Amino acid sequence: MTTEFILRLFIAVLLGSVIGLEREYRAKEAGIRTHFLVALGSALFMILSQYGFNAVLSKLDQASFDPSRIASQVVTGIGFIGAGTIILQKHIIRGLTTAAGLWVTAAIGMTCGSGLYLLATASTIMVLICLEAFNIGIQKLGYRSLNISFTASTGEDIVQTLDEMRQKGIEIDSYSMQKQQDSAGITYHASMEIKARRNIYHSQILSLMKEFSGVTFENIE
């Protein structure tokens, strides 16, 4: 029986690592090691929940137990790890997909711990399809949020830049500007959050940087 348990753990970490490898490739917050440990831990908890108390229960004729009691706590506990990968950065929430990936990785680990290998493998394939195949389609559709910071010597240069962005179909969600004066003169610092079409946003940003000689782009995220 111990050999069977080790096999379950091995398949769990193998499937979890496959998902983690994809996240590692995308340079996300939780990579292969995190997914490896989540899958291993959840599978181990599942085995413990099902078989860990058989020796005690065999001595207690009147005792009964719910084999899902530990598994249900894994579902709750994995939320703390997932929450740690969610970051609010400059009004943009990042890490939700990685958190959801950790959540489903825990489910895959628990499925392996129950011995349902085919179901766990099919779930892993579905996760990879979601992360990779859908990602290719999303890159060609919809909009992408970007944070841009730039400086200009005059307010007119900033206004011209904003008008040009709107003409190119770039949506400006938020905007702020500061006027700074020093020995070199007056400088205007502007920062904004924009939305641009995913399939052409690279060319749009590059064209803006080339077209405006009076504007210096400091940061694009």
Task: Please characterize this protein's 3D structure.
By secondary structure, the chain is of the alpha+beta class. 59% of the residues lie in helices and 21% in strands. It is built from eight helices and six strands; from the N terminus they run ααααββααβαββαβ. The strands form two sheets. Strands 4-5-3-6 form a four-stranded antiparallel beta sheet. A two-stranded antiparallel sheet has the order 1-2. β4 (171-182) and β5 (185-197) form a beta hairpin. α1 packs antiparallel against α5, α2 runs antiparallel to α4 (69-84) and α4 packs antiparallel against α5. It starts with a helix and ends with a strand. 26% of the residues are buried.
Shape: elongated
| Total DSSP E strands | 6
Distance N terminus to C terminus?
A: 52 Å
Series of secondary-structure elements, N-terminal to C-terminal:
HHHHEEHHEHEEHE
User: How is the biggest beta sheet arranged?
Assistant: 4 strands, antiparallel
What is the mean pLDDT? 76
Helix proportion: 55-70%
Number of helices: 8
Proportion of residues in extended strands? 15-25%
**Quaternary state of the chains:** single chain
How is the largest sheet built, in terms of strand order?
4-5-3-6
In terms of structural class, how would the helical and strand content be classed?
Answer: alpha+beta
Radius of gyration: 26 Å
Low-confidence stretches: none
